[in-house]
Every structure is written in structure tokens, then in C-alpha cells.
Known about the structure:
By secondary structure, the chain is mainly α.
Amino acid sequence: MIAALPLLSRLLGVGREMVYAYFFGTGPALSAFRVAWQVPNLFRRLFGEGALSAAFIPVLTDCLHHRGQPEARRLAGAVVALLAVLLTALVIAAEAGLAIAHWAHPSLTLRLTGLMLPYMPLVCVVALVGAMLHVLNRFAAPAFAPVLLNVFIIAAGLLGGQALGLQGRALLYAICGAILAGGVAQLFLVLVSLRRAGFWPRFRLTWRDSEIRKVGMVMAPMVLGMSAVQINTLADSLIALFFVPDGRGPAVLGYAQFFYHLALWGFGLGVGTASFPLLSARAAAGDLPGLTRAYEQGMRISLFVGVPSAIGLCLIAEPLIQAFFERGQFRAGDAARAAPSLVFYGVAVWAFFLQHILVRTFYAMKNSRTPVRVAVTMVAVNLTLSLLLVFFLAEAGVALATAICAALQVLWLSWRLRAHLPSPRDRWGFVVGRIALASLLLVVAVRLPGWAVGSARWGLLHPGIQVATSVALGVGVYMAAAWALRMDELRELLKFRAKR
């Protein structure tokens, strides 16, 4: 049951995006909402699900096992209190700044950002409490929390848009209210689960504890090293908002970002997260050959899934968008406009997958400087490229800049890692060659129906039929080719999925 909750959350995420498409299409109002929503999400992924959780879990685990539950509860309460106070203060300051900016230059984006900022401390505390529950081997509540939020958003969209007849800004305000209500509901859910686990934190505001300083010292470089994708996503939307003339850029980008994030958070992040304990254990033991094998396995599995995923997104970009979103306010021309952005993001899916393995390998070796330097440089390069390409390709140029930077980041990190690990054991040319051959057969399989019945007749079929047929043929042929070529990655992937 618990294993099915992430899948349920992603399915509801699809439903959430379909609600946006039906009621808002790619209009400027949705663009404003996309940008505003990414601000609390950026902090959630950095401080909640990202760096803070990664730094907090090992410290709390060590405290629980060596100093006992009372000390662990004291540590947990202090970290939660500090996080809540700091983020609340940040929200108050940001709200004041937004109010002044909105007074000087009224903007729907500023208004919606102000409405949703209070969600930021809520969701970050939810993620931190979820990390505590993971340490206690309680997984149901943290897994159900995203499901709960999507339910609130979908309900607000359907009830507000259909039952109450709300439109435009009024409906967006209703969705913002649902997000805040969903944040409160998520917090209540995880706190109840924590109390039932018998681990109620001893809340107190202090920063003079050695364990708290240890969390901060580990977290600080991780925030920068793990933030490139999130910062680039927000930067993409801001550049599209200001430099795409019709105001539809962020709305269009949002649909493309959803599909590549679905692939990334659905699998790429999972491989990186699952590999991290093994990488850390090998590094802590000084077992560099073992660390190299663990790193190479994660890279091979990520390539095995990332390359065909990238190709598939590129081949079926437009019918995929049409199948899920083309109804209500989302018109036929909207899918054609969003498809190039999805193609450019899709080209780099393999790189987004590999980033997580590379960054975590550096962290396992206690080397945070390298990924931080690379990430900061790539954010600057991405901003520069986006500002250049947006004038030629509109919002699709922003997506292309992000894809280029993701590939450059992987190449740079791989090159730097060679100085720290023994010579590769795997024959990478042979591995990449087999993945390339299986991927070529995938391309043929996906294109085969169009060749068989003719492109014109194939294009007249319902997009859902095109997507379902293409995915079934592509996945089937790729897996069959992997089996025929005796690719170790297929066996390792099946073992990984079984463990999850």
C-alpha cells in the first residue's frame, strides 16, 4: 500500500495539470500562477526534501542510537523550531517587500506569490517531520502528504470552476487558498503520525547545540550543490515571463517541465537517493574500488533508463501534450507551441538523471566544494544562455539553455570525479554502444505505425491512441533488445524496482 502512494501522487499530479489546462489553457493568468507557485516549491525542495533532510537524517539517526530518544527528541524539536522561526521571519520580510512592489507596480504574479508564501514554512516543516518519520521507519504519512495536497488543488479547481462558476483570477485565488489549506492538512497528518510513533519533539529555540551546528555545516554546501535544477527551473519561468511578449511563456513551459520532472522525480531522483547510502558506506570505509563500482552501477542504470526516456519524450512530445491537456481552454495551437519546449527538456533527461548520481558521489566522499562550484557556474551560464536564446526561440530557447547546461554539468562533474576514483572497471564504450543500439530499435518501433499506415492517416488518430501505441511498442522493443543483448542494466533495474 505504501509503495503505491508515490504512484498515486504522480497520477494526481497529472490530474492537477489537466485541471490547469482545462480552466486556464496557456493564458497569462496561469503564467503568473506558475511563477508564484515555484517560489515556495523552491524552498521545499532545498530546505525540506533536499539539503536539510539529507543533512538532518544521519545526525538524528546517530543521536537516536548513541544518545537515546530523549536527546533525539530535543535535537528534533530544536531543528524544527529554528526552521519554523527562520522561515516565518523570511516570509514576513518577503511579504512586506511584495506589498511595496505591488503597490508601486500592480502585478498578478506578485499578488499570487504573496498569497502562497505562507505555504513555504508549512511544507518545509512537513518535509522535516517526514524525515523524522523515515528515521523511525514510519513511511505512510510522508508518502500520503503530497497526495493530500493534490486532492485539495483538484477539488478547488473542479468545485470552484464547475460548481461555483469561478473563472480567471477568482479561480486562481480559490486554488491558492486550497494550497494553504492543504499545507495545514499535511502538517496535521505528519504531526499526528509522529505523536503515534511516540516521538514528540521537545520544541525549544536554540542554535548553540553541537548537533544543530553539525546539521547546518553539512546542509549549507548541499543547498547550493543540489539546487541547480530548481534554481534553473525558476529562472526559466522568470525569463519567460519578462521576455516572451504575450505573457504565455511560463504557462507553456510549465506543461513541458511537468513531463520531464515526472520522469526525473519518478525515477532519476529515486536512483540517486537509493544509491546514496551505499556510496556513503563505501566512502566511509575507504573502499574506493567499491565506491567506484557503486557509482558506475548508478550511472549505468540511469543511462539505461534516461536515454530511451529522452528519446521517447522527443518523439511523442506533441501528441503526448494533446492527449493529456487538449480540452477546455487548452487549444490545439497550445500543444504545438509547448512541444518544442518539451523536446528541448527531453533531450537532456539523461543528464538530469546522471546529475543526482554524480553530486551524491562527491557528497559521499565529503567533497562538497566541487559540486557547489560547478552548480553555481552552471546557474550563471544557464541565465546567460537563456537571455540570449529567448529572443530567437521564445520560451523554447529557455528550455534549450537548461538542457545544454545540464549536459555540460554532467560532463564537468564526470571529468572532475576521475581525479578521485580509480580507473573505471566497466567498459563504457561497450555499455553506451548497447544502450545506443537498443535505443535505435526503439526509434524504429515508435516510428513504425506512421510508416505502416502513412503519416497523414496516423496523424488523424486520437492522440491518446498514438501515445499508447508508441509507448507500448517502444518500451516493449527496448526491453526485448536489452534482454537479447544481455544487458546487465536490465537485471539491476529489476532488482532496484523490487527493493523499492
